[in-house]
Amino acid sequence: MTEKFELGIIDGSAAYRLASQVIIPRLKVEVFPKKGSEPFSLRDEIYAILADEVKKGTITQTELESISRVDSKGVKSTLMSQTRYFVLHILKSTGVVMSSDTRGMFILTDAAAIEEEEEEDEVDGVVTAGSIYAYTFPSLNGSMIKVGKASGNVEERINQQLGTANPEAPQILKVWPSTDADSYELAIHSVLKARGKRVNAPRAKEWFRTTIQEVDAIIQFVKTS
What we know:
Distance between the termini: 66 Å
Radius of gyration: 21 Å
Shape: elongated
Number of domains: 2
Helix content: 40-55%
Order of helices and strands: HHHEEHEEHEEHEHEH
């Protein structure tokens, strides 16, 4: 049986223990396996777990909102905000997460190699009928677009990447049917990379700071070349 968490005196030590003994273990078991390679809000996940722990009676809302630290300038931190700080500090310092190119969003670092291997397993140079697709997430506010290929159903392909338990539904922006999806995808990625549009983050593979209009233009150029 898991030992019951005891908060004790509300201070920095309590915040650290709440982060390391309660929040991070739940993130690793319940949240991270469902995230795939997409950016996510670590803050939202932390606060959701804290809210659940309040419901379970592990901690009270009053305790979370209590002052746990006052710095040299007189700035006060609540137990909730300091717990969030420790969660982020521990996960970043141990290499579990890293900041994405979108403010406030994070990506897991340990699946980058897996995604790379999966893509390398695809057969290069084979003409594959299918589709080019582009999607994003509402929370990204149009700042990034994922451009990929699917040999079958596009929605199924996207769900394979994200997992059906992803908390935010992807927004499919456009699908381009193609008799040579491999070549079209290669051309789109190559042009966007050359233009400096690729998102520079290990787990943000095939994500670009582009628009549907720009992708359209590249596809039309390939068609007429």
